[in-house]
Specification:
This protein is an alpha/beta fold. The chain is built from eight helices and ten strands. The structure holds iron/sulfur cluster (SF4).
Length: about 250
Amino acid sequence: MVELKEYQRSEVPNWCSGCGNFSILAGVKKALSELNIEPHNIVLVSGVGCFAKLPYWIKAYGFVGLHGRSLPVAQGIKLANPKLTVIAFGGDGDGYGEGGNHFIHACRRNLNVCYFVHNNGVFGLTTGQYSPTSEKGRKSKSSPLGTLEKPLNPLTLAISAGATFVARAYAGDFKQLVELMTQAIQHTQQGKGFAVVDILQPCVSFGKNYEYYQKRVYYLGTEHDATNKIKALEKALESGEKLGCGVIYEEP
Ligand code: SF4
């Protein structure tokens, strides 16, 4: 097995203390280690946002590009060398806002790439403006009277656009986070297509905290049939007070 220390870099992340990004960073390394993927066979691609610095802190190949553009770069890398494990990272602002169009077409294109989205419901890097997944009515620097738009639902969008693996994880549950990341990577290794993991990520400075999520997160049990697209869409439509985590949809 590739040991965790083989992905370790000497630089220290500069995220806020308690940020959910720390467990996502640790989770990626643990999943890659458990799958025995050597650093020289991994490419991590990101865009712009607090999350986007993640490739700086894992010893593997990395590309930090333009806002919302991690998916086109990741797909190009995968097409050029299909043997590589390619993971794109996005934020809710970066990936569902600026990169929304790329997201839709990556879902229907279904190349064997993972997409891990750090969904914290705000633009954290620029100090808390509302994002595509902010709740309606959220007051922020860019919405002093409250937002007018309903939040975007990335899960229903991914399923309906054709992604073959769609899951939701919570950064506050490290064990399940690693399990879902592992399943997503395996899905791409098996040539089954695009694997999306929307990760509920506490932003302790500008967004929702752990307490908020812990009141709402629950785990999908064996009664959920992830191979049934209609049932998956019904589950994905739950929002707000109920946040079901697990594999929402996987194409049989
Ligand atoms: Fe994390 Fe939010 Fe701080 Fe950014 S602003 S590092 S998302 S806690």
